[in-house]
Amino acid sequence: GEPWEWVLDRASPGERTFRELVTDWLERGSRWSENTRARNIPTINRLLTEFGDVSLSKLNRTAIEGYLAQRRSEGIAKATANRYLCAMNVVLNKGVEWGYMRDNPAADLKIVPEGRKLPRPYREGEVPALLQSLDAAERDLATVYLETALRLGELEKLLWADVDLAGRTLTVRGPKNGRDRVVPLSGSAVRILTERRREWKAEQSEEHADLRVYGSRANIRK
Span 61-83, mean pLDDT? Predict the structure, then answer.
């Protein structure tokens, strides 16, 4: 029931390279969010440097395993090696689904245990010092993060429809665990969001209305 080329381990119908598969996947197969995509593009580019011109029929477990071993010998962290393998699996699984290849040669490779690194809480005085070092707009954003414990993606996607200033709550839609949650707002958060609401109204026009509270402004990674 398989093409004879596959049975003989020769080129598959419509032979493609790994680069062509990645290009197709980025254009129409990726389900990564904008933030996840931005974080993983450097990983994808490293994989393209190594495997970009390799035909999918020639891509095998030995080559992938050897590449990961080489990178680990060069001193990359276990977490970085795991990201390479995860990205490779995501792309190759889509190649199998689309019929570009018979199977995923990376499927049986194991993630390397990374161990858990316990976070260090801020010490007394560190949070005020951090906030004091920011300009006014970033200080307000950082305060909203601290007072609500929202993730970056959650605050970027937060809509005004999900903010109840009178009731002093906001609702996070579609979080990682799949269950919406209601977050109570502190006095500081209410004050900042009330001011942000006034700014937001002034920013809107008849041609364009952004219904998000902050949108991309919520990204203060610097």
Answer: 91
